[in-house]
Specification:
single chain, about 120 residues, alpha+beta, 1 helix, Secreted protein, signal
């Protein structure tokens, strides 16, 4: 009886851990941009790749050191890029919304600007 109980709790614990890991992951990649494509980037699980227009086309720059805060079906990623603090907030990965998804950029002097985001999952 003790063996069956131990096996049951082990399976229950492993199932619970798998559910938590599945909820924590960003499935695939999420592409987002601000109005008029001024800022455009791709969000992965552990990095954000910014897409910047140059004279020779699009350039990709990645920011790997970031923090992720998860809340319900959404997340907030905080990173530093070009000496500025970027906060990318997606309210719900199942239902993107320009009202709930935004990018906030704060300069070293403390000036802050917030852009609404248009996101889609790839």
């Amino acid at each position: 009886m003790k063996t069956i109980r131990a096996i049951f709790f082990t399976i229950l614990t492993l199932s619970f851990m798998q559910v938590i890991q599945a909820r924590a992951a960003v499935h695939g990649k999420i592409e987002c941009h601000t109005p008029r494509m001024k800022k455009s980037f791709v969000i992965f699980n552990n990095k954000v790749s910014f897409l910047e227009d140059t004279e020779r086309g699009r350039m990709v720059a990645s920011a790997k050191t970031l923090r992720t805060k998860r809340k319900n079906n959404g997340f907030t990623k905080i990173l530093h890029y070009w000496g500025q603090r970027h906060e990318i907030h997606v309210g719900n990965v199942s239902k993107f919304s320009e009202l709930n998804d935004y990018l906030t950029i704060r300069t070293a002097k403390g000036h802050e600007i917030t852009y609404p985001l248009t996101c889609n999952q790839k």
